[in-house]
């Protein structure tokens, strides 16, 4: 941790070597965060670059209260959501307020182990709105009220999108595992 603090302080002073080291340390992490939201690898790399640029230009505002990695993650998520808004993919979020969808949480279960990297590919198959809500809630720990504010939707729509995302993801996981099983046979 002292090494991370020193690196942050050096970046706050604008030292190019420290900025390069910060990029090397956090770019892969940010790409992983952004990639869960943005399905195209090329677009995710572009968003990651914007996020790391924002980290380096806003690092002076980091006050060492809380986790630096959490601060970086938040910037990556915000950049990914801004990208989705710019691309107008947010329109894929269905407003489900008028539909009577029960808000019972049906958790995703994994009927078997997935190979490394398979989950990102399965998440890519979700509609953008489902993927955004699923990632914000399940992967990043936001509450539905926060998600609703971030995405400009109602809390009910956030909950509905999560339920539908979990159902679709469960079906995708089962299909994926069945295909794996057939390949081994």
Query: What structural class do helix, strand and pairing data support?
Result: mainly alpha
How many structural domains in the coordinates? 2
Shape estimate: globular
- Number of H/I helices: 8
User: Whole-number average pLDDT?
Assistant: 85
Number of strands: 0
Radius of gyration: 19 Å
CATH class of the largest domain: Mainly Alpha
Order of helices and strands: HHHHHHHH
Note poorly predicted spans: 90-111
Query: How large a portion of the residues is in β-strands, by DSSP E?
Result: under 5%
- The CATH level-2 architecture of the largest domain is identified as Orthogonal Bundle
Biggest β-sheet description: none
Short description:
With 185 residues, the chain is mostly helical. It is built from eight helices and no strands. It is 68% helix and 0% strand.
What can you tell me about this protein's structure?
- The chain contains eight helices and no strands.
- It is mainly α and 185 residues long.
- It folds into two domains: 2-87, RNA polymerase sigma factor, region 2, helix turn helix motif (Rna Polymerase Sigma Factor, Chain: A, Orthogonal Bundle), CATH 1.10.1740; 92-184, Winged helix-like DNA-binding domain superfamily/Winged helix DNA-binding domain (Arc Repressor Mutant, subunit A), CATH 1.10.10.10.
- Helix 2 packs across helix 4, helix 6 (128-139) packs across helix 8 and helix 7 (144-151) packs across helix 8 (155-184).
- The longest helix is centred in the last third of the chain and has 30 residues, at 155-184.
- The chain is globular.
């Amino acid at each position: 941790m002292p090494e991370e603090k020193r690196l942050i302080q050096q970046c706050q002073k604008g030292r190019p070597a420290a900025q390069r080291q910060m990029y090397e340390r956090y770019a892969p992490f940010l790409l992983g965060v952004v990639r869960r939201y943005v399905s195209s690898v090329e677009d995710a790399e572009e968003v990651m670059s914007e996020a790391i640029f924002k980290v380096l230009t806003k690092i002076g505002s980091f006050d060492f209260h809380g986790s630096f990695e959490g601060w970086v993650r938040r910037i990556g998520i915000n950049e990914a959501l801004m990208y989705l808004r710019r691309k107008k993919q947010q329109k894929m979020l269905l407003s489900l307020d008028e539909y009577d969808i029960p808000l019972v949480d049906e958790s995703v279960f994994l009927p078997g182990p997935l190979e490394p990297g398979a989950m990102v590919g399965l998440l890519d198959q979700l509609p953008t709105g489902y993927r955004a809500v699923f990632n914000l809630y399940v992967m990043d720990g936001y509450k539905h009220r926060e998600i609703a504010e971030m995405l400009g939707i109602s809390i009910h729509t956030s909950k509905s999108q999560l339920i539908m995302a979990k159902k679709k993801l469960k079906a995708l996981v089962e299909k994926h595992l069945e295909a794996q099983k057939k390949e081994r046979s």
